[in-house]
Amino acid sequence: MDEKMKERNFMKRIMGVYDVDPYYAERFAEFANQKEQIPFTVVAFSSIAKLEAFTQQQQLELLLIGDEADKTQLSGVKAKQIVRLAETQETLGGEMPAVYKYQASDAILREVMACYQVQPEQIPLTAIGKKSMVIGVYSPVSRCGKTGFCITLGQILARESQALMISLEEHSGLSRLTGTEYTTSLSDLIYDYRRGDYTRMRLGAVVHNWGGLDYIPPALYAEDLAEIQGEELARLTAQIAAEGVYPVILMDIGHLGRGLEPVLELCGVIYAPIKEDCVSAAKLSAWQDYLELCGRAYLWERVHLLKLPRPGAVWQAETYLEQLLWGEMGDFVRNLLKGQKGSER
User: May I ask the CATH class of domain 3-117?
Assistant: First the structure.
Protein backbone atom coordinates (compact mmCIF):
# COMPACT_ATOMS: atom_id res chain seq x y z
CA MET A 1 0.00 0.00 0.00
CA ASP A 2 1.52 3.35 -1.04
CA GLU A 3 2.00 6.36 1.26
CA LYS A 4 -0.91 8.28 -0.28
CA MET A 5 -3.32 5.45 0.54
CA LYS A 6 -1.94 5.18 4.07
CA GLU A 7 -2.55 8.90 4.57
CA ARG A 8 -6.14 8.55 3.36
CA ASN A 9 -6.69 5.65 5.74
CA PHE A 10 -6.13 7.89 8.73
CA MET A 11 -8.55 10.48 7.33
CA LYS A 12 -11.47 8.14 6.66
CA ARG A 13 -12.84 4.91 8.02
CA ILE A 14 -11.94 1.83 6.03
CA MET A 15 -14.32 -0.40 4.10
CA GLY A 16 -12.68 -3.64 3.00
CA VAL A 17 -13.80 -5.70 0.01
CA TYR A 18 -12.82 -9.33 -0.47
CA ASP A 19 -14.08 -11.69 -3.15
CA VAL A 20 -12.61 -14.80 -4.74
CA ASP A 21 -12.67 -12.78 -7.98
CA PRO A 22 -9.99 -10.14 -7.26
CA TYR A 23 -10.99 -8.09 -10.31
CA TYR A 24 -14.50 -7.63 -8.90
CA ALA A 25 -13.12 -6.30 -5.60
CA GLU A 26 -10.67 -3.99 -7.37
CA ARG A 27 -13.28 -2.55 -9.72
CA PHE A 28 -15.75 -1.95 -6.91
CA ALA A 29 -13.11 -0.26 -4.72
CA GLU A 30 -12.03 1.98 -7.59
CA PHE A 31 -15.63 3.03 -8.23
CA ALA A 32 -16.50 3.63 -4.56
CA ASN A 33 -13.39 5.72 -3.92
CA GLN A 34 -14.60 8.20 -6.55
CA LYS A 35 -17.75 8.89 -4.50
CA GLU A 36 -16.91 11.81 -2.22
CA GLN A 37 -20.15 11.50 -0.24
CA ILE A 38 -19.13 8.03 0.99
CA PRO A 39 -17.18 8.53 4.27
CA PHE A 40 -14.95 5.51 3.65
CA THR A 41 -11.70 4.68 1.99
CA VAL A 42 -12.45 1.41 0.21
CA VAL A 43 -9.62 -1.14 0.04
CA ALA A 44 -9.71 -4.30 -2.09
CA PHE A 45 -7.99 -7.44 -0.78
CA SER A 46 -6.83 -10.36 -2.90
CA SER A 47 -6.59 -12.91 -0.08
CA ILE A 48 -7.84 -13.60 3.42
CA ALA A 49 -4.24 -13.56 4.66
CA LYS A 50 -3.71 -9.98 3.40
CA LEU A 51 -7.06 -8.97 4.84
CA GLU A 52 -6.16 -10.37 8.26
CA ALA A 53 -2.70 -8.79 8.21
CA PHE A 54 -4.20 -5.37 7.41
CA THR A 55 -6.70 -5.56 10.27
CA GLN A 56 -3.95 -6.32 12.76
CA GLN A 57 -2.83 -2.74 12.14
CA GLN A 58 -6.23 -1.07 11.68
CA GLN A 59 -9.73 -2.37 12.30
CA LEU A 60 -12.16 -2.25 9.40
CA GLU A 61 -15.34 -0.27 9.91
CA LEU A 62 -17.09 -2.45 7.35
CA LEU A 63 -16.22 -5.55 5.35
CA LEU A 64 -17.93 -6.68 2.15
CA ILE A 65 -17.23 -10.33 1.49
CA GLY A 66 -18.27 -12.60 -1.35
CA ASP A 67 -20.46 -15.66 -0.81
CA GLU A 68 -17.78 -18.00 -2.13
CA ALA A 69 -15.17 -16.88 0.40
CA ASP A 70 -14.44 -19.28 3.25
CA LYS A 71 -16.10 -17.58 6.24
CA THR A 72 -14.35 -19.94 8.68
CA GLN A 73 -11.09 -18.10 7.97
CA LEU A 74 -12.45 -14.76 9.18
CA SER A 75 -11.80 -15.40 12.86
CA GLY A 76 -8.60 -13.34 12.75
CA VAL A 77 -10.14 -10.47 10.76
CA LYS A 78 -11.12 -7.40 12.77
CA ALA A 79 -14.21 -5.73 11.31
CA LYS A 80 -17.00 -3.92 13.15
CA GLN A 81 -19.61 -5.10 10.66
CA ILE A 82 -19.70 -7.60 7.79
CA VAL A 83 -22.03 -7.42 4.79
CA ARG A 84 -22.29 -10.43 2.50
CA LEU A 85 -22.16 -10.11 -1.30
CA ALA A 86 -24.87 -12.59 -2.27
CA GLU A 87 -24.40 -14.55 -5.50
CA THR A 88 -28.16 -14.84 -6.12
CA GLN A 89 -31.31 -12.96 -5.15
CA GLU A 90 -32.59 -16.13 -3.46
CA THR A 91 -29.69 -16.15 -0.95
CA LEU A 92 -30.23 -12.61 0.38
CA GLY A 93 -31.83 -13.82 3.60
CA GLY A 94 -30.01 -14.95 6.72
CA GLU A 95 -28.61 -13.50 9.92
CA MET A 96 -25.78 -11.59 8.20
CA PRO A 97 -26.81 -8.44 6.24
CA ALA A 98 -26.51 -9.08 2.51
CA VAL A 99 -26.70 -7.21 -0.79
CA TYR A 100 -26.99 -8.69 -4.27
CA LYS A 101 -23.54 -8.80 -5.84
CA TYR A 102 -24.43 -8.56 -9.53
CA GLN A 103 -26.09 -5.16 -9.79
CA ALA A 104 -24.89 -1.65 -10.54
CA SER A 105 -22.19 -0.43 -8.16
CA ASP A 106 -24.32 2.63 -7.31
CA ALA A 107 -27.12 0.32 -6.17
CA ILE A 108 -24.72 -1.80 -4.10
CA LEU A 109 -23.41 1.30 -2.33
CA ARG A 110 -26.93 2.51 -1.53
CA GLU A 111 -27.88 -0.86 -0.07
CA VAL A 112 -24.65 -1.09 1.92
CA MET A 113 -25.28 2.40 3.34
CA ALA A 114 -28.76 1.28 4.36
CA CYS A 115 -27.39 -1.89 6.03
CA TYR A 116 -24.59 -0.15 7.85
CA GLN A 117 -25.35 0.41 11.53
CA VAL A 118 -23.89 3.74 12.55
CA GLN A 119 -24.47 6.06 15.48
CA PRO A 120 -25.17 9.68 14.47
CA GLU A 121 -22.14 10.98 16.33
CA GLN A 122 -19.72 8.64 14.56
CA ILE A 123 -19.68 10.67 11.36
CA PRO A 124 -19.39 14.44 11.86
CA LEU A 125 -22.24 16.44 10.40
CA THR A 126 -19.86 19.28 9.66
CA ALA A 127 -17.16 17.58 7.62
CA ILE A 128 -14.17 19.56 6.43
CA GLY A 129 -14.76 21.65 3.34
CA LYS A 130 -16.50 24.89 2.54
CA LYS A 131 -20.26 25.35 2.61
CA SER A 132 -22.13 24.44 -0.55
CA MET A 133 -23.64 26.94 -2.95
CA VAL A 134 -27.43 26.42 -3.01
CA ILE A 135 -29.25 27.23 -6.25
CA GLY A 136 -33.04 27.27 -6.39
CA VAL A 137 -35.16 26.68 -9.49
CA TYR A 138 -38.74 27.85 -9.01
CA SER A 139 -41.51 29.44 -11.02
CA PRO A 140 -45.14 30.30 -10.34
CA VAL A 141 -45.74 29.59 -14.04
CA SER A 142 -46.82 26.05 -14.94
CA ARG A 143 -45.27 23.95 -17.73
CA CYS A 144 -42.36 26.33 -18.20
CA GLY A 145 -39.60 23.71 -18.50
CA LYS A 146 -38.42 24.15 -14.90
CA THR A 147 -37.52 20.53 -14.11
CA GLY A 148 -35.85 19.90 -17.47
CA PHE A 149 -33.77 23.06 -17.01
CA CYS A 150 -32.81 22.05 -13.46
CA ILE A 151 -31.63 18.58 -14.50
CA THR A 152 -29.72 19.95 -17.49
CA LEU A 153 -28.09 22.62 -15.33
CA GLY A 154 -27.12 19.96 -12.80
CA GLN A 155 -25.56 17.66 -15.38
CA ILE A 156 -23.48 20.49 -16.82
CA LEU A 157 -22.36 21.75 -13.40
CA ALA A 158 -21.48 18.18 -12.40
CA ARG A 159 -18.88 18.05 -15.18
CA GLU A 160 -16.82 20.60 -13.27
CA SER A 161 -17.52 19.54 -9.68
CA GLN A 162 -19.92 17.37 -7.73
CA ALA A 163 -23.51 18.57 -7.65
CA LEU A 164 -26.60 17.30 -5.84
CA MET A 165 -30.19 17.92 -6.97
CA ILE A 166 -33.09 17.70 -4.52
CA SER A 167 -36.50 17.40 -6.17
CA LEU A 168 -39.45 18.92 -4.34
CA GLU A 169 -41.97 18.18 -7.07
CA GLU A 170 -45.12 16.24 -6.25
CA HIS A 171 -45.12 14.40 -9.58
CA SER A 172 -41.72 14.98 -11.15
CA GLY A 173 -41.75 12.01 -13.53
CA LEU A 174 -38.07 11.33 -12.74
CA SER A 175 -38.61 7.59 -12.44
CA ARG A 176 -39.99 7.42 -15.98
CA LEU A 177 -37.43 9.84 -17.42
CA THR A 178 -34.42 8.04 -15.93
CA GLY A 179 -35.81 4.52 -16.25
CA THR A 180 -35.17 3.92 -12.54
CA GLU A 181 -37.42 2.41 -9.88
CA TYR A 182 -36.74 4.06 -6.54
CA THR A 183 -36.82 2.09 -3.30
CA THR A 184 -35.68 5.12 -1.26
CA SER A 185 -36.49 8.79 -1.62
CA LEU A 186 -36.63 12.18 0.07
CA SER A 187 -39.31 10.73 2.37
CA ASP A 188 -36.76 8.32 3.89
CA LEU A 189 -34.18 11.06 4.41
CA ILE A 190 -36.71 13.33 6.11
CA TYR A 191 -37.78 10.44 8.34
CA ASP A 192 -34.16 9.83 9.40
CA TYR A 193 -33.68 13.54 10.03
CA ARG A 194 -36.76 13.75 12.25
CA ARG A 195 -35.48 10.84 14.36
CA GLY A 196 -32.05 12.44 14.70
CA ASP A 197 -30.50 9.63 12.63
CA TYR A 198 -29.32 11.69 9.66
CA THR A 199 -25.71 11.00 8.65
CA ARG A 200 -23.74 11.14 5.44
CA MET A 201 -24.26 7.40 5.28
CA ARG A 202 -28.04 7.89 5.28
CA LEU A 203 -27.66 10.47 2.53
CA GLY A 204 -25.61 8.04 0.47
CA ALA A 205 -28.34 5.43 0.86
CA VAL A 206 -30.88 7.55 -1.03
CA VAL A 207 -28.70 9.32 -3.61
CA HIS A 208 -28.95 8.21 -7.26
CA ASN A 209 -26.93 9.39 -10.25
CA TRP A 210 -27.88 10.43 -13.75
CA GLY A 211 -25.42 11.80 -16.28
CA GLY A 212 -22.90 12.51 -13.52
CA LEU A 213 -25.47 14.40 -11.43
CA ASP A 214 -26.28 13.03 -7.99
CA TYR A 215 -29.89 13.49 -6.99
CA ILE A 216 -32.36 12.62 -4.25
CA PRO A 217 -35.55 11.18 -5.75
CA PRO A 218 -38.71 13.10 -4.82
CA ALA A 219 -41.12 11.85 -2.19
CA LEU A 220 -42.91 8.74 -3.43
CA TYR A 221 -46.32 10.12 -2.48
CA ALA A 222 -47.60 13.68 -2.72
CA GLU A 223 -48.98 13.25 0.80
CA ASP A 224 -45.44 12.76 2.12
CA LEU A 225 -44.30 16.02 0.57
CA ALA A 226 -47.34 17.86 1.93
CA GLU A 227 -46.32 16.86 5.48
CA ILE A 228 -42.79 18.24 5.13
CA GLN A 229 -42.48 21.71 6.65
CA GLY A 230 -40.43 24.38 4.92
CA GLU A 231 -38.33 25.10 8.02
CA GLU A 232 -37.62 21.40 8.46
CA LEU A 233 -36.53 20.97 4.86
CA ALA A 234 -34.41 24.12 5.03
CA ARG A 235 -32.58 22.83 8.13
CA LEU A 236 -31.88 19.49 6.45
CA THR A 237 -30.62 21.21 3.29
CA ALA A 238 -28.45 23.55 5.35
CA GLN A 239 -26.96 20.55 7.14
CA ILE A 240 -26.09 18.86 3.84
CA ALA A 241 -24.61 22.14 2.58
CA ALA A 242 -22.53 22.58 5.74
CA GLU A 243 -20.83 19.23 5.13
CA GLY A 244 -19.28 20.67 1.97
CA VAL A 245 -19.35 17.32 0.13
CA TYR A 246 -21.22 18.92 -2.76
CA PRO A 247 -19.96 22.32 -3.97
CA VAL A 248 -23.39 22.88 -5.53
CA ILE A 249 -26.87 21.88 -4.33
CA LEU A 250 -29.79 22.37 -6.74
CA MET A 251 -33.34 22.65 -5.43
CA ASP A 252 -36.11 21.85 -7.92
CA ILE A 253 -38.86 23.62 -5.99
CA GLY A 254 -42.53 22.91 -6.55
CA HIS A 255 -45.42 24.88 -5.06
CA LEU A 256 -44.62 27.36 -2.30
CA GLY A 257 -47.96 26.72 -0.61
CA ARG A 258 -46.26 24.38 1.87
CA GLY A 259 -44.23 27.23 3.34
CA LEU A 260 -41.07 26.60 1.33
CA GLU A 261 -39.90 30.22 1.53
CA PRO A 262 -37.24 29.19 4.11
CA VAL A 263 -35.76 26.99 1.37
CA LEU A 264 -35.60 29.98 -0.99
CA GLU A 265 -33.75 31.92 1.71
CA LEU A 266 -30.92 29.37 1.50
CA CYS A 267 -30.49 30.02 -2.21
CA GLY A 268 -27.81 32.38 -3.42
CA VAL A 269 -29.45 32.35 -6.86
CA ILE A 270 -33.07 31.61 -7.79
CA TYR A 271 -33.66 30.77 -11.45
CA ALA A 272 -37.26 31.43 -12.45
CA PRO A 273 -38.30 30.16 -15.91
CA ILE A 274 -41.19 32.18 -17.37
CA LYS A 275 -43.39 32.28 -20.45
CA GLU A 276 -44.48 35.25 -22.56
CA ASP A 277 -48.24 35.51 -22.09
CA CYS A 278 -50.53 37.66 -19.97
CA VAL A 279 -51.46 34.87 -17.51
CA SER A 280 -47.80 34.04 -16.85
CA ALA A 281 -46.99 37.73 -16.37
CA ALA A 282 -49.87 38.04 -13.90
CA LYS A 283 -48.64 35.04 -11.89
CA LEU A 284 -45.11 36.43 -11.80
CA SER A 285 -46.39 39.79 -10.54
CA ALA A 286 -48.52 38.06 -7.91
CA TRP A 287 -45.46 36.14 -6.66
CA GLN A 288 -43.45 39.35 -6.36
CA ASP A 289 -46.32 40.98 -4.43
CA TYR A 290 -46.51 37.95 -2.14
CA LEU A 291 -42.80 38.17 -1.29
CA GLU A 292 -43.31 41.79 -0.28
CA LEU A 293 -46.36 41.00 1.83
CA CYS A 294 -44.59 38.23 3.76
CA GLY A 295 -41.53 40.37 4.42
CA ARG A 296 -39.21 38.62 1.97
CA ALA A 297 -38.97 41.23 -0.77
CA TYR A 298 -35.18 40.94 -0.59
CA LEU A 299 -35.44 37.50 -2.21
CA TRP A 300 -36.51 39.15 -5.47
CA GLU A 301 -32.97 40.48 -5.86
CA ARG A 302 -31.76 36.88 -6.19
CA VAL A 303 -34.30 35.97 -8.87
CA HIS A 304 -33.06 35.53 -12.44
CA LEU A 305 -35.92 35.37 -14.94
CA LEU A 306 -35.28 32.95 -17.80
CA LYS A 307 -37.05 32.43 -21.11
CA LEU A 308 -36.17 28.84 -21.89
CA PRO A 309 -36.11 27.17 -25.30
CA ARG A 310 -39.12 24.92 -25.75
CA PRO A 311 -38.50 21.21 -26.49
CA GLY A 312 -40.16 19.51 -29.44
CA ALA A 313 -43.42 17.68 -28.86
CA VAL A 314 -42.21 14.41 -30.41
CA TRP A 315 -39.50 13.61 -27.88
CA GLN A 316 -39.64 10.22 -26.15
CA ALA A 317 -39.42 9.88 -22.36
CA GLU A 318 -36.53 7.38 -22.61
CA THR A 319 -34.25 9.89 -24.40
CA TYR A 320 -35.72 13.18 -23.17
CA LEU A 321 -32.95 14.08 -20.73
CA GLU A 322 -30.17 13.32 -23.23
CA GLN A 323 -31.89 15.42 -25.88
CA LEU A 324 -32.22 18.29 -23.43
CA LEU A 325 -28.51 18.11 -22.58
CA TRP A 326 -27.31 18.06 -26.19
CA GLY A 327 -30.07 20.17 -27.69
CA GLU A 328 -31.13 23.80 -27.38
CA MET A 329 -31.62 23.54 -23.62
CA GLY A 330 -28.05 22.36 -23.09
CA ASP A 331 -26.71 25.18 -25.29
CA PHE A 332 -28.85 27.67 -23.36
CA VAL A 333 -27.48 26.50 -19.98
CA ARG A 334 -23.87 26.45 -21.19
CA ASN A 335 -24.21 30.01 -22.50
CA LEU A 336 -25.89 31.07 -19.25
CA LEU A 337 -23.03 29.72 -17.14
CA LYS A 338 -20.42 31.11 -19.54
CA GLY A 339 -22.00 34.55 -19.28
CA GLN A 340 -22.02 34.40 -15.49
CA LYS A 341 -18.35 33.42 -15.37
CA GLY A 342 -17.55 36.33 -17.67
CA SER A 343 -19.41 38.80 -15.42
CA GLU A 344 -17.48 37.58 -12.36
CA ARG A 345 -14.13 38.53 -13.86
Answer: alpha beta
